[in-house]
Amino acid sequence: MSSLLRVMTARRVWAVVVLAALAVAGCAERRADEVRLVFRHSRMPGERDPLPALLREFERRHPGIVVAHEPLPWTADVQHQFYVINLEGRSAGFDVLMLDVIWTAEFARAGWLLDVTDRWPAAERREHFPSMVEAATLGDRLWAVPWVMNVGLLYFRADLLGRQGFAPPTSYASLAEQAAAVMHAAGEPRLAGFLWQGKQYEGLVVNVLEAMWGEGTDLVGRDGRLLPEPARAAAALAHRRALLTHGISPPLVTAADEELTRREFGAGRGVFLRNWPYARALFEAGGSPVAGRVGVAALPGGGALGGAHLAIHAGTRHPEAAWALVRHLASPAAQRAIADAVGLHPTRPALVDDAALRAIFAGARPRPVTPWYQTLSATLQPELSAAILGLKPAGQALADAERRLAYFLRP
Amino acid sequence: MLAVVTVYPIVRVIALSLERRVPIFGIADFVGLANYAFLARDGAFWGAIRVTALFTVASVAAELVLGVAAAVALRAQRRGVAISLSLLLLPWCLPGVVTGRIFEWIYHPSAGLMNRLVAVVASAQPNWLGDPRLALPAVIAADVWRTTPFIALLVYARLVGVPAAVYEAAAVDGAGRGATFWRITLPLLRPVLLVALLFRTLDAVRAFDLMFILTGGGPAGVTETLTLYAYHSLFQTLQLGFGSASAVVVGALVVALAWGHLAATGERDAV
Q: Average pLDDT by consecutive 10-residue portion of chain A (411 residues)?
């Protein structure tokens, strides 16, 4: 018994010695001049994450730089909160960050991002869709590089429209007319005319913005003024309410997000749908009831820009290495790899093979590029919701939001 | 120690509430009571107070009634009490986020359980989370489902402690079931119900997670409670001063409620 114990103890000593030796060897291998970068990003959708391979390739090309990548929390709101808390604390713990296009101006104004204007050659900027670059610009300086792109699309049932001889609509008024005609001809009570996102969240602001663009006006004017044409903005919002009262959009729209409407349309219960490009592959997947019957067009007035930028934390100790990483990840080859693996779209027209989709992407419009976008959106959300539910007239809802914003944004 | 962990944050948040402060943009101006003045004029803030009051009264009342009913039924049960107790406790053990996701599916307008049940009896397909008349009741129902077990457990523990002789004596005196419940059981439960009432009221006033997941405060702000209002001001609009002012109001309200409750019950229980 005691000899067995002694053997075990001896083994344990050996184990400690071996582990210690390995640890020393490990430390020795790590060179003193090695640069360690941390990249924060949201998880890639689907199973085939292309990032590890892209990062290993970067390390091969840049000996002496090691990149650790750490995923962000799942939802956009929590990601934003994570960034605000960590970046405001000045001990961010990361060098390169992926950020939603609507946060770039805010983070730039907060002083969290490294100005990349002088590093980024003008000729390379012109490779990207202009809306992606516009969303990365604040005060004539550039703060981030376009990485992946999203744009609001109009999906339609090509078979149902074709039966009526309709071409995809170019105004929301004709969209409503076409939807009503198709619904009437189909005689199917569960077929919705137009599905969109009306839940009280960021998606509602996106949909109403697109409605305003369709009406030829905007939420924030070129001079930075809020609601430059209040009457037209109210008309656009009132039209959303009318879609519901006329039965062209079903009541479920008032609590609907992207997935809910995508499932309804995907089950064959919609004539038109406003959604992001991700839905396309799902509609054409095997077993989809609408496979081969879905068309895609530009939204009247243009679709809202979504997607992500890559930026460098202003407090990084390795700006050169971080810039090299940003360029690598946003390179045409990397964007192509990401598109092939998980279907996130490139930000360069040259990489979008489908000509029709390329034209739609080129017409994308950024949401208001302002450091105060979060405040703007959060304040608008309940008011827009009240307007589409008919609890308030559209004009009053916008005026109420404007009054609250005047307090929050006062100089 | 107590001063560091409670007094300092309270003083700090009150000081912050007197500023216009957006820390990420380096904005920090003293504005006196302007934030409170704006709150007093803000329709959304009064809406949040109304929602919080409705939510608190309705959910706590339903939870107390159902909790007592469940406990009494459990006490009368002869076999399988352990299994019933475990099943009963399940909803209470789930994290709020999980409960929220479950109810998101239950209320799904076309694929949800609720509308499948409704479809059996009617052709209407209510839009539980999108209709301003239904959204708050739907959230309250989810909260009742989750929290009734808490009350039931407290009440059940008290019922187990009541000697059988008390009920035997009542039966000998000719008391029926109803009379036994109203005259014997309920008075015995009074202390435990008052504690449960206090806990649940304070919890309900601070309600956050279910509406955050299910509705985000919508539609049209009809499920926006005071804590959600404070959250939107603090973390979405990043108005730290203004958000602090609303947090101070919530805090004061909770303290006032607890104080009122203790003052009202403490005296009578001392008799």
A: 49 56 50 84 85 95 94 86 84 89 95 95 95 96 97 97 96 97 93 96 96 96 91 97 97 93 96 96 93 96 96 94 96 95 93 93 96 93 95 96 90 72
**Same domain? A173 vs A274:** yes
CA distance A90 to chain B (A): 11
- Whether A14 is in a domain gets the answer no
- My answer on whether A285 and A167 are in the same domain is yes
User: In chain A, which among 170-199 make CB contacts under 8 A with chain B?
Assistant: 198-199
Which among B110, B220, B232 is the nearest to A378, CB-wise?
B232
A311 and A400 assigned to the same domain: no
Please indicate, yes or no, if residue A20 is contained in any of the structural domains.
Answer: no
Q: Do residue B110 and residue A200 have CB atoms under 8 angstroms apart?
A: no
pTM of the predicted model, to two decimals?
0.86
By residue range, what is the domain housing residue A296?
Answer: 153-303+372-408
Residues with Cβ within 8 Å of residue B13, at least 6 apart in sequence: B244, B247, B248, B251
CATH of domain B2-270: 1.10.3720.10
| B43–A contact, CB cutoff 8 A | yes
By Cβ distance, the residue of B26, B38, B132 closest to A389 is B132
Q: What ranges do the domains of chain B cover?
A: 2-270
- Give the ipTM of the model, two decimals please: 0.83
